[in-house]
Amino acid sequence: xxxxxxxxxxxxxxxxxxxxxxxxxxxxxxxxxxxxxxxxxxxxxxxxxxxxxxxxxxxxxxxxxxxxxxxxxxxxxxxxxxxxxxxxxxxxxxxxxxxxxxxxxxxxxxxxxxxxxxxxxxxxxxxxxxxxxxxxxxxxxxxxxxxxxxxxxxxxxxxxxxxxxxx
Length: 167
Description:
Strand content: under 5%
Order of helices and strands: HHHHHH
Largest sheet: none
Number of domains: 1
Helix content: over 70%
Number of strands: 0
Distance between the termini: 39 Å
Number of helices: 6
């Protein structure tokens, strides 16, 4: 027999673990993996995304729109990365969790664009569902990455400026 309070306690414990690893993964991505080998990994990712964008720009109206949105997001990622890595690590990593989330959104958008390209001219229900889901992601989810990367790029320090005494 399971009691509601037990389930709430378990869920609460999992959330704190998730929050901790989320922060560590952000620090690891921006502080260690991105600058590794002079940014070769990020450059390779951006090159692969650029290749998909180039294919999408000649594939049709919706693909061109997706390509423009994704290109804008990759440009924002590049600017935010440069800004974060141009200052001392303690300052540049302030918003590493936002960087992690935004980078993830950009990668997922790239995967959706690649899937839409792979559909070609298919007109079946499965293809229509894929296209609609991609549209949702590009219109509702990808813009969140731009907001997060703007915080990273301007080296926002609001969380850092909070004082323990205020709590």
